[in-house]
Design a protein that fits this description.
Elements: E1 9-12, E2 17-20, E3 28-33, H1 44-62, E4 66-71, E5 79-80, E6 86-87, H2 89-97, H3 101-118, H4 134-146, E7 150-153, E8 156-159, H5 161-167, H6 178-184, E9 200-205, E10 221-223, H7 227-237, E11 241-247, H8 251-266, E12 271-277, E13 280-282, E14 285-286, H9 297-302, H10 314-322, E15 330-332, H11 334-353, H12 367-379, H13 384-402, H14 410-427, H15 441-457, H16 461-473, E16 478-481, E17 484-487
Parallel strand pairs: 3-4, 3-11, 11-12, 13-15
Antiparallel strand pairs: 1-2, 5-6, 7-8, 8-9, 9-10, 13-14, 16-17
Helix pairs in contact: 1-14, 2-3, 4-7, 4-8, 10-11, 11-13, 12-13, 12-14, 15-16
This protein binds one RNA strand of 75 nucleotides through helix 1, helix 6, helix 8, strand 14 and strand 15.
RNA sequence: GGUCUCGUGGCCGAGAGGCUUAGGCAACGGUCUGCAAAACCGUGUACAGCGGUUCGAAUCCGCUCGAGACCUCCA
């Protein structure tokens, strides 16, 4: 198999442009993606981001890279708002549900793991949790203080953005300029401990009603929101790794502050390439409880959301998502899901046909070029929609061969089969429905179709249609062709 | 208010200065079929509006209108 590495281009949010992808260490890639915060069940929008990075991970692996994929789990609520007040969202959820923080985290972690399986996401190499890395976070904070980019006030530690800006570029990722920011942000209030409005907390002194408290050199408290990612990415991938990903909405302040923390402690931007996945809209608007278009990933699969009139399989949802580029917003509607369902059926029907195709002495079309087009699409900043368009060209060819209007050699068929399965199953992460044969249903179906065939030979259309309609009601589609009758 | 993204045919969505009228779904006409379905062939409707740059723009620039993101928790 030829080496396909080396043609990949990725859109780097730092430069805002497509760049040739060259790993820091040849053949190996370190990738960090900001994972879920476990104070509630992840919603469909969260899932889109994770599914997109799952696709990116899958393609890198498909290319033959050895990828270390780290996706963290935020299990500590330690968020501060602009006024510097601690907002312990996990603690808040715990109080609402009358359970301990740990239970909340555990409960939603189990759900998240279920969702990963349901949506066929590969398990990352490591899923570290924030609470298991408090010590590492403290050590990085100490280092930033040592370097002069942070200061302690009354048991809390803040990042000194002005001092940092003397040597580094704060705003390199988000494009924000701190003097412009100032005018637009509410001014420091009297009790604020920060020296400068843009300073952000690395460590917050504990409130009496915090449910999770840790000891530190500065007293009992909680780590700031951004420091956990710096601690964990550094621990598992080093000071400088290849890809850092996350949702578009994390660009500022989260990722910007991560960069500041890394520069402030190790002197460099932690990641060579920053990738950001775009948001999911539902019925034309950002998914939000107040818009009434909010639903959970299991509700759409189980058909328990009012938003859609029927359930959709995880594969159809994934397929629908893959038809949009990861950097574009995607609008999920009943129509788009129905279209995806039909399209996905067409694709998987063709794949199921692959093992049954007759081969010939020559191929009437350029299989190599077709396969190359799969790679070209994905090499262009993971253009999955383009890949799918090219896969449908292959679908057309497969059907033509099946109908005897195109020919393919055994070698070419082998190549096409492997690559189709590799891209559809391996890269897009879609389950392909070719397992009919080994189920207990198969012999029963053979029997039923045999009976129907007899009826058809006797021109007993009433019986044959009764069977066909009955199977359709059970979700089984019967297809008649010259070669015989098949079902799926 | 500031920073930024986007506005493509009935729908979802690629593309990006001059062959790609991408692709999927839907529609229409055929082939096939006992009738369907599936498959195949063919057809139609596009690039928000206005102005500019250019030999030439859906693709570049400006403005207008509209949608959205971030600036405050957010994938």
């Amino acid at each position: 198999m030829k080496d396909r590495k080396g043609n990949l281009q990725v859109n780097n949010s730092i430069s805002g442009q497509k760049e040739k992808f060259e790993p820091i260490h040849q053949g190996r890639i370190g990738m960090y993606v900001c994972g879920p915060t476990l104070y509630s069940e992840p919603h469909m929008g969260n899932m889109r981001t994770f599914i997109n990075f799952d696709m990116i991970y899958r393609y890198l692996v498909h290319l033959g890279y050895q990828v270390k994929y780290v996706r963290n789990i935020t299990d500590a609520g330690h968020i501060t708002n602009s006024a510097g007040e601690a907002v312990d969202s996990i603690g808040k959820a715990a109080k609402l549900e009358q359970v301990q923080s740990l239970e909340i985290v555990y409960k939603y972690n189990v759900k998240f793991q279920d969702l990963q399986r349901t949506y066929n996401m590969l398990t990352p190499s490591i899923e570290p949790t924030a609470t298991q890395h408090i010590q590492e976070q403290i050590e990085i904070i100490e280092k930033i203080i040592e370097n002069g980019y942070a200061y302690e006030v009354n048991g809390s530690v803040y990042f000194d953005v002005r001092k940092f800006s003397e040597k580094f570029h704060y705003g390199i990722l988000s494009g924000r300029k701190i003097d412009e920011l100032e005018e637009e942000t509410r001014s420091l209030n009297a009790q604020d401990e920060k020296r400068f409005f843009a300073d952000f907390a690395l460590w917050k002194k504990a409130n009496p009603d915090d449910m999770q408290i840790w000891r530190s050199p500065w007293g009992d408290g909680n780590p700031g929101w951004h420091i956990e990612c710096t601690a964990m990415s550094t621990k598992y991938l080093g000071d400088h790794f290849d890809i850092h990903g996350g949702g578009m909405d994390l660009k500022f302040p989260h990722h910007e502050d991560e960069i500041a923390q890394s520069c402030g402690s190790f002197g460099c931007n932690p990641a060579k390439y920053w990738l950001h996945a775009n948001m999911l809209n539902v019925n034309g608007q950002k998914m939000s409880k107040s818009f009434g278009n909010y639903f959970l990933p299991m509700e759409i699969v189980e058909g328990t959301t009012e938003l859609f009139s029927k359930p959709y399989s995880p594969d159809v949802i994934r397929f629908c998502m893959m038809q949009a580029h990861y950097r574009s917003t995607l609008d999920l509607t009943e129509d788009s899901l129905n279209a995806a369902e039909k399209g996905y059926t067409r694709l998987s029907d063709a794949i199921a046909l692959l093992p049954k195709l007759k081969t010939g002495n020559e191929s009437s079309f350029a299989v190599n070029e077709l396969v190359d087009s799969f790679y070209q699409a994905m090499d262009d900043d993971f253009n999955a929609p383009m890949l799918i368009a090219n896969l449908f060209e292959a679908v057309r060819r497969i059907n033509l061969v099946n109908d005897g209007n195109d020919t393919i050699t055994a070698n070419d068929l082998d190549l096409l089969s492997n690559e189709m399965m590799g891209f559809v199953g391996g890269v897009l992460g879609l389950k392909t429905g070719i397992s009919n044969g080994d189920s207990k249903l198969a012999p029963v179906m053979d029997l039923i179709l045999d009976i129907r065939q007899k009826a058809r030979e006797n021109k007993d259309w009433t019986t044959s249609d009764l069977i066909r309609d009955g199977l359709a009601a059970a979700g089984i589609v019967v297809k008649d062709s010259k070669e015989g009758t098949s079902w799926s």
